[in-house]
Amino acid sequence: GPFSCIAEYVKELDLNGKIDGVLLDLGVSSPQLDDAARGFSFMRDGPLDMRMDPTTGISAAQWLAKADVDDIGWVLKTFGEEKFAYRIARAIVADREATPFLRTLDLANLISRLCPKREKKKHPATRSFQAIRIYINSELEEIHKVLEGALDILALDGRLSVISFHSLEDRIVKRFIRKQEKGREYPAGLPLTDAQMQSGKTMKSQGKAIKPSADEIEKNKRSRSSVLRVAKKIAQPE
């Protein structure tokens, strides 16, 4: 089942509030990425699908066949932080009438023709494929839900550890922890008790974000963009 159902699973097992640690690995599994038939790869030809669960929702190909320039451009820019998002979107819409985008390499080759290679060791289609995958699977929405669920099921002093693999994910995790640390916000200038000032504070960050060493990146290339953040659940004041 999806990440976002973590609290439901734990409640069914009668373990709510008894979990000492939750580790969330937000990365897509390597076997899924490497399986050309799943449509995630811009290096290997396969059907342009990208659904984590191929039995539900619509495929990337179905979405690209219907979406307009603004929608495609917004997805590539928002979820892929792609500089040439609208240039790519216009080309997809212009070309799809004659030749629908049904295969991964059709889309990857189009993007390669349009976009100069800007980053070493990064294919020009990396950001666009990431964006479409995130959108098709509602991945960022899932992250918001699982963070809330993880906080709910943790015991006091329990640790939440989250490994992110791109800046959008890491930003969500960082903001979530920061929001839990700040607690309830009051208008400036109100006379507040210590308890009121502490109210709503549910977590405390456990140090700075941890990134992989050069040695780890050498052994596992896919770890290069990973970021680990850890926070502890804290008690509410009486």
UniProtKB/TrEMBL annotation:
One of its GO terms (molecular function) is rRNA (cytosine-N4-)-methyltransferase activity. It holds the Pfam family Methyltransf_5. Residues 197-238 are annotated as: Disordered. One of its GO terms (cellular component) is cytoplasm. InterPro entries: RsmH, SAM-dep_MeTrfase_MraW_recog, SAM-dependent_MTases_sf. Keywords: Methyltransferase, S-adenosyl-L-methionine, Transferase. SUPFAM superfamilies: Putative methyltransferase TM0872, insert domain, S-adenosyl-L-methionine-dependent methyltransferases. The keyword Transferase applies. This is 16S rRNA methyltransferase.
